[in-house]
Specification:
With about 350 residues, the chain is α/β, with parallel strands linked by helices. Helix content is about 35%, strand content about 15%. It has a single domain, classed as Glycosidases (TIM Barrel), CATH 3.20.20. The N terminus is likely disordered.
Length: about 350
């Protein structure tokens, strides 16, 4: 009887101790997947809409608040690792004594960027881009052929997942965009993602994971990306707008219905000057179709690290402006008009 009283007392104390843990120490709320829907922490369907902060280091302090005011609920944030980009964009640290394989300065900036989005209540999709690893430009040295770099990429993701698994509003981990490894079919690309899902799930079993098809995230290859290894997978494909702007909508909705899985467009966008009526008409057609079909999206891109006024980007660099940025107001108005639910 005395032993039972002691056990009861210890159990009661443990319950009281756990109940006294502040809410801030509890696991943060997460998105999830239910059939063809992404659902919010309360279990209600949510259509993720927002911008890409696609060009490294371009985010300005006002951007998160401006997105929320416009109706956005999400943002897509990159880390670029092992590739050829503009100076100081590649975050890879070749130092063998650095277990993260990421340069500290890049981690500091990534921390700041994620904090900006999280503090604003924007659901974050974090992706790790690797031009070399994905096989861009027909590069034969990639994650399918180089086991050393593939292992480092696993360790990059292990580090990032541990680092951000408790970050509020971490919405999804997008493993590797736009795979196109030479000589590798859909099954080999899917096997790579399946293996990486296992790596992430060894650390974080709650946060959804984004995967996409072979051939640079081609919507026409979605079927080849379908996997059954994890129930919290969000599928994606690119939707850059050219001729026949609506030609991929049925492919997306058919795939979603056939497998009862969510599809979210990681990049939708079109090149165009501020007064390009034809490009804006195509953009309205596509964003309207997304709205009609409940397809989430992230516009490519919010700020362009360049001075071309007629390519992608709501803002582009302009040294004549007081803050160095020129906004394409007509495009901002158009895209913002489709952000609110």
């Amino acid at each position: 009887m005395k032993l039972r009283q002691v056990v009861f007392g210890v159990t009661t104390a443990a319950v009281l101790l756990l109940s006294s843990v502040p809410a801030s120490a509890a696991a943060p709320a997460r998105l999830s997947v239910s059939g063809a829907n992404v659902v919010d922490p309360s279990g209600n369907p949510i259509v993720l809409r927002g911008y890409n902060w696609g060009h490294w280091g371009t985010v300005q302090p006002q951007d998160p608040g401006d997105h929320v005011t416009a109706g956005a609920n999400s943002v897509r944030i990159p880390l670029r690792w092992w590739g050829e980009w503009k100076d100081d964009v590649d975050s890879r640290d070749p130092d063998p004594d650095n277990p993260s394989h990421i340069k500290q300065g890049h981690l500091d900036l990534l921390d700041k960027t994620i904090e900006q989005a999280s503090s604003a209540g924007l659901w974050i999709t974090l992706f790790v881009d690797s031009d070399h690893g994905q096989g861009a430009g027909g590069r034969p040295d990639n994650f399918w052929t180089n086991p050393v770099m593939k292992q480092q990429f696993k360790e990059v993701w292990q580090f990032l997942v541990r680092k951000y698994k408790a970050t509020p509003y971490m919405g999804a981990f997008e493993i590797l965009p736009e795979p196109k490894p030479v000589g590798q079919d859909d099954a080999h690309v899917r096997a790579f993602y399946d293996e990486m899902i296992g790596v992430i799930r060894g650390i974080d079993r709650r946060t959804p994971i984004v995967v996409g098809p072979n051939d640079n995230y081609s919507c026409s290859r979605l079927e080849g990306a379908y996997t059954t290894v994890d129930p919290k997978v969000i599928y994606t494909c690119n939707y850059f707008i050219f001729e026949n702007p609506l030609n991929r909508i049925k492919v997306i909705t058919d795939f979603r219905a056939a497998h009862s899985v969510p599809v979210w467009i990681n990049q939708v966008g079109i090149e165009g000057c501020n007064d390009d009526a034809v490009a804006k008409g195509k953009a309205r057609d596509v964003l309207g179709a997304f709205q009609d079909n409940g397809i989430g999206w992230a516009w490519w891109t919010y700020r362009l690290n360049g001075t071309n006024p007629c390519t992608h980007g709501i803002y582009y660099l302009d040294p004549s402006e007081p803050d160095g940025w020129h906004v394409k107001k007509a495009w901002r108005t158009l895209v913002n008009g489709y952000l609110a639910a």
